[in-house]
UniProtKB/TrEMBL annotation, chain A:
<keyword id="KW-0001">2Fe-2S</keyword>
<feature type="domain" description="2Fe-2S ferredoxin-type">
    <location>
        <begin position="7"/>
        <end position="83"/>
    </location>
</feature>
<dbReference type="InterPro" id="IPR052914">
    <property type="entry name" value="Aldehyde_Oxdr_Iron-Sulfur"/>
</dbReference>
<dbReference type="InterPro" id="IPR036010">
    <property type="entry name" value="2Fe-2S_ferredoxin-like_sf"/>
</dbReference>
<dbReference type="InterPro" id="IPR036884">
    <property type="entry name" value="2Fe-2S-bd_dom_sf"/>
</dbReference>
<dbReference type="GO" id="GO:0016903">
    <property type="term" value="F:oxidoreductase activity, acting on the aldehyde or oxo group of donors"/>
</dbReference>
<protein>
    <submittedName>
        <fullName>2Fe-2S iron-sulfur cluster binding domain-containing protein</fullName>
    </submittedName>
</protein>
<dbReference type="GO" id="GO:0046872">
    <property type="term" value="F:metal ion binding"/>
</dbReference>
<dbReference type="Pfam" id="PF01799">
    <property type="entry name" value="Fer2_2"/>
</dbReference>
UniProtKB/TrEMBL annotation, chain B:
<keyword id="KW-0500">Molybdenum</keyword>
<dbReference type="InterPro" id="IPR008274">
    <property type="entry name" value="AldOxase/xan_DH_MoCoBD1"/>
</dbReference>
<dbReference type="GO" id="GO:0016491">
    <property type="term" value="F:oxidoreductase activity"/>
</dbReference>
<protein>
    <submittedName>
        <fullName>Xanthine dehydrogenase family protein molybdopterin-binding subunit</fullName>
    </submittedName>
</protein>
<dbReference type="InterPro" id="IPR016208">
    <property type="entry name" value="Ald_Oxase/xanthine_DH-like"/>
</dbReference>
<dbReference type="InterPro" id="IPR037165">
    <property type="entry name" value="AldOxase/xan_DH_Mopterin-bd_sf"/>
</dbReference>
<dbReference type="Pfam" id="PF20256">
    <property type="entry name" value="MoCoBD_2"/>
</dbReference>
<dbReference type="Pfam" id="PF02738">
    <property type="entry name" value="MoCoBD_1"/>
</dbReference>
<feature type="compositionally biased region" description="Low complexity">
    <location>
        <begin position="1"/>
        <end position="14"/>
    </location>
</feature>
């Protein structure tokens, strides 16, 4: 008998539980876009090189195109559609909107999800490749523009909204002064 | 009710967030591959694995037997489409979008088949499993500046060759001569949203949801190809994830339309990132030679600019790089020539700042070399050669505030304190330098139609076939319409991206917003006239229409351009060869700025393209296979956040007196001159001239040391 090519999985997406029968070849990205009609998460390269498909997987940022849906069984996903609190935008979304942190908008959901995680990672004291003092007792480095650029570099923007994106992240993090 | 048209509003000219911004930050904005349709099938393109030859056979049977596969389209079973028509640009079409019409393979990755299946996974697996046999023929993809088979070619009304004065005699009489060759590599648009079309046949009507920069162009091309009335084709593109010149009619729309007709159900075809490198056009590599002859005080006697680019064997495209030298500087003698060579490669196309981006790299680098040779400040050199009239055309200029851009930029950048000597500044182990370059770009308008409706509830609806590919056009047009209607922007509904709204120029040539604004202000004027009687608005509203084909071409001939001055500071690591841009400032004279928030984004976005072009972007073609090496976003690096410093753009006041709104266009000029400013700064840092882009670490490391 041919081995099964589909499996049933359960995903919690933006607080809602979904049970899906998925093709084993289906990526988490395609499961979101094609099966759950959550098209806010974008496909820029489908091979882990652009960051457009970034979501929060169990609270951490991940590129959903490199994750098979079956491997996400039982996990919790937050997409760009799940960030706002009703009509109230997430502070990162609000900053992107106010400071023009996007142009075509296609990289934007990935940038925003990444930025949400960057702010948390920074607050938790995670260093980056440009952090000078990486000793745990040094505490979080100042969230300078350089730190933001380094931490956001997995998210490409072809429109060239980089300057406005960095400012938006800084504003949302409350570190605007440091990062102008 | 009577519309609120009495109070004065000055929305245009002040910063406004994008009207569709909320949809874009919440993920609600849907792009072409994101519109659900019942019964949708998915198509996956199959590209050739040879660069030239013929398809001998396509082994469809095993793929058709795969689960979910519905059909395999290829040249042997696909209906013929028309390819001998005239495009809206007045040119013959690039026939490569007309897929599966014959057995010839014209470049690596040429579309040879489309596998259509119930799901994208099934289509993709079918496409990967499809065996295609070829009769391979020898190919030639080797571009170089000394191709003997290159030939001169006119482009879009520009002659291939211009010749004014006695270039050789002036060069011979010059005290200082710069004679140098510059090259730029193959560059790719890489809009973040891959090309995608969702297509259905609805009765006899072709309904296309697509990612493009002009719904009307795609409508017209598809109508021609499928022998339909334009009214029988509807193309919609509400949100477009970047275009940059690469989103015209391409294989995906045509393949999807063919498959949808063959299957009698809707079909979506989305390109992969890798396919985009072969199928959507690109900026050709260029080889350029510049010869400048000047008196000892830097005044030019001769300016010669020859440029060469590649094109495909089936369609001609000129990367008009010598154009900048026809309008840049005064000289007694001017000679320019643009040539192409036909290779077994995809047809190149327009890419953000076509012609000017590579052309300004060569010319503005050469001007910096001349400044150094003459011992004159590079800005002063440019001022000394500022032309009174078009140097080649002899036409008067429209507004030309280039000197003001340099003055303001120099002040803001701190240029006055610059030590001109190269290779003398250090920050730790890094060498520091600064450089500048001039920028200019054509400022024109093209025809468009618009309809403006005064609604019974006191609001207004504008319908125009405009495209917002990220430029902020939707928002700028809302402000312009509100200003013309003397109402508040939130009372204006701006509907764009639908070919049913009538013909209009596209998001191209930095002419989109200007051309659409012209049509909208004309329609508003007509509407205001109709409303002047003071009669009430009937329930269906009152609509006035405009068509600017008469007015936009009615302007007296002039050299109409936008200008800018670019300033870069770089740090060069002599140990690794890494060049980092530390600061980039651009000051522009680019017409009236309608929405400062989004215009600044356009300008800095263009400047970031310039950094990316200067330091990173290079598609490498393997001459043996004829295909790319690393055709993806890892192999082709576009600037990431860590590559981009504080980039600042600002402008001097420059409303265009001949435009009803005062616009010139800001979409492309930001790119122009940046690569030269960076390369000039690298010379200032290291004393070494780099004439080949990108300024890769290996090039910096292996460059012979300064004399
Ligand atoms: S789509 Fe996942 S990283 Fe590009
Ligand atoms: S906004 Fe267009 S790619 Fe980032």
């Amino acid at each position: 008998m041919a081995p099964p090519v589909h499996s049933e999985i359960t995903l919690t997406v933006n607080g809602e539980e979904h049970t899906l029968l998925v093709d084993h070849r289906t990526t988490l990205l395609d499961a979101l876009r094609e099966r759950l009609d959550l098209t806010g998460t974008k496909k820029g390269c489908d091979q882990g090189q652009c960051g457009a498909c970034t979501v929060l997987l169990d609270g951490r940022r991940a590129v959903s195109c490199l994750q098979l849906a079956v491997a996400a069984e039982g996990r919790t996903v937050t997409t760009v559609e799940g960030l706002a609190d009703g009509d109230r935008l997430h502070p990162v979304q609000q900053a992107f909107l106010d400071l023009d942190g996007f142009q075509c908008g296609y990289c934007t959901p990935g940038q925003i999800c990444s930025a949400v995680a960057v702010i948390e990672e920074h607050a938790a004291g995670w260093p980056s490749a440009v952090t000078a003092d990486v000793r745990p007792e040094a505490g979080p480095p100042e969230l300078t523009a350089e730190e933001i650029r380094e931490r956001m570099s997995g998210n490409l923007c072809r429109c060239g909204a980089h300057v406005q994106i960095v400012r938006s992240v800084a504003r949302a993090a409350g570190a605007e002064e440091a990062a102008v | 009710m009577t519309p609120a048209t009495t109070t004065e509003h000055t929305a245009a000219g002040t910063a406004h967030r994008r009207v569709e911004g909320r949809d874009k930050v919440t993920g609600a904005a849907r792009y072409a591959a994101e519109i659900p349709l019942a019964g949708l099938a998915h198509g996956w393109l199959v590209g050739s694995t040879v660069a030239r030859g013929r398809v001998r056979s396509v082994e469809t049977a095993p793929v058709l037997a795969m689960p979910g596969v519905l059909t395999v389209l290829h040249h042997g079973n696909t209906a013929r489409v028309t390819t001998d028509y005239v495009t809206v640009l007045g040119t013959s079409p690039d026939p490569t979008a007309a897929v599966f019409q014959h057995d010839q393979v014209q470049h690596m990755g040429w579309p040879v088949a489309l596998v259509v299946a119930e799901t994208p996974e099934q289509a993709r697996e079918g496409a990967e499993a499809l065996v295609v046999h070829y009769d391979e023929e020898p190919h030639d993809t080797a571009f170089s500046g000394d191709r003997a088979d290159a030939y001169p070619l006119d482009s879009m009304g520009q002659p291939a060759v211009t010749d004014k004065g006695e270039t050789e005699a002036e060069l011979a009489a010059s005290a200082v001569v710069v004679d140098a060759c510059y090259t730029t590599p193959e560059n790719h648009h890489n809009a973040m949203e891959p090309h995608a079309a969702t297509v259905r046949w609805d009765g006899g009507r072709l309904d296309v949801i697509d990612s493009n920069q002009s719904a009307a162009w795609i409508q017209s091309e598809l109508a021609n190809m499928f022998s339909l009335d334009p009214q029988s084709v509807r193309v919609r593109s509400e949100h477009v994830g970047g275009a940059f010149g690469g989103k015209g009619v391409r294989a995906h729309q045509v393949a999807a339309a063919l498959a949808a007709r063959a299957l009698g159900r809707p079909v979506r075809v989305a390109m992969t990132r890798r396919q985009m490198f072969a199928l959507i056009g690109y900026r050709s590599p260029t080889a350029q030679r510049i010869r400048l002859g000047a008196d000892a005080d830097g005044r030019l006697r001769a300016l010669q600019h020859d440029s060469l680019n590649q094109t495909s064997t089936v369609h001609e495209h000129v990367e008009a790089s010598a154009g900048v030298s026809r309008v840049g500087y005064d000289a007694a003698a001017h000679r320019t020539a643009q040539r192409v060579v036909r290779l077994d490669v995809p047809t190149p196309t327009w890419m953000r700042a076509p012609g000017e981006a590579p052309g300004s790299f060569a010319l503005e680098s050469a001007m910096d070399e001349l400044a150094a040779e003459c011992g004159i400040d590079p800005i002063e050199l440019r001022m000394r050669n500022e032309p009174e009239r078009g140097p080649v055309s002899g036409l008067p200029f429209g507004s030309r505030r280039l000197p003001d851009c340099f003055r303001e930029g120099a002040r803001r950048f701190g240029w006055a304190d610059r030590d001109p000597r190269p290779g003398v500044r250090r920050d730790g182990r890094r060498l520091l330098g600064t450089g500048t370059a001039a920028a200019s770009f054509l400022a024109m308008a093209m025809p468009a139609t618009a309809a403006v409706t005064a609604e019974a509830d006191g609001t207004f609806t504008v319908r125009i076939g405009a495209a917002d590919v990220g430029t902020g056009a939707r928002t700028a047009l809302t402000l312009i319409a509100a200003e013309a209607l003397r109402t508040a922007p939130d009372r204006v509904r701006m509907r764009i991206g639908d070919s049913d709204f009538g013909p209009a120029w596209g998001a191209a040539g930095s002419m989109g917003t200007r051309s659409w604004a012209w049509a909208i202000t004309d329609a508003v004027a007509a509407l205001r006239e109709r409303l002047a009687g003071g009669a009430g608005i009937p329930p269906e509203g009152v609509t006035a229409r405009s068509d600017t084909s008469g007015s936009v071409f009615g302007l007296a001939p002039r050299e109409r351009r936008a200008y800018g001055a670019q300033f870069a500071e770089v740090a060069v690591d002599p140990g690794t060869g890494e060049v980092r841009v530390r600061r980039l400032l651009g000051i522009f004279a680019a017409g009236r700025i309608v929405n400062p928030l989004t215009a600044r984004s356009q300008l800095t976005g263009g400047m970031i393209w310039g950094i990316s072009m200067a330091l990173h972007e290079e598609a490498v073609r393997d001459p043996v296979s004829g295909g790319h090496v690393g055709a993806d976003l890892a192999g082709y690096h576009v600037a990431a956040h860590a590559d981009i410093p504080a980039v600042e753009a600002d402008w001097v006041d420059d409303p265009d007196p001949e435009d009803p709104v005062g616009i010139k266009g800001v979409g492309e000029i930001g790119v122009v001159g940046v690569a030269a400013a960076v390369a000039n700064a690298v010379w200032h840092a290291t004393g070494v001239r780099h004439r080949h882009l990108p300024l890769r670490p290996d090039r910096v490391l292996t460059a012979p040391p300064a004399a």
